[in-house]
Amino acid sequence: MSFLVLENLSKRFGGHAAVDKLSLGVEKGEFVSLLGPSGCGKTTTLQMIAGFVEPTSGAVRLEGRDLLAIKPARRGLGIVFQSYALFPHMTVGENVSFGLEMQGVAAAERARRVGETLELVGLAAFAGRFPRQLSGGQQQRVALARALVIRPQILLLDEPLSNLDAKLREEMQIELRQIQRSVGTTTILVTHDQAEAMALSDRLVVMNQGRVEQIAPPHQAYERPATAFVAGFLGKTNLLDGATVRPEKISFAGEGLAGRVRTRVFQGNHWLYQVETEKGLVTVIRQNSGEPMPVEGEAVCLTWGKA
Question: Which domains, from first to last, does the chain contain?
Answer without folding.
Answer: 4-229 (3.40.50.300), 241-304 (2.40.50.140)
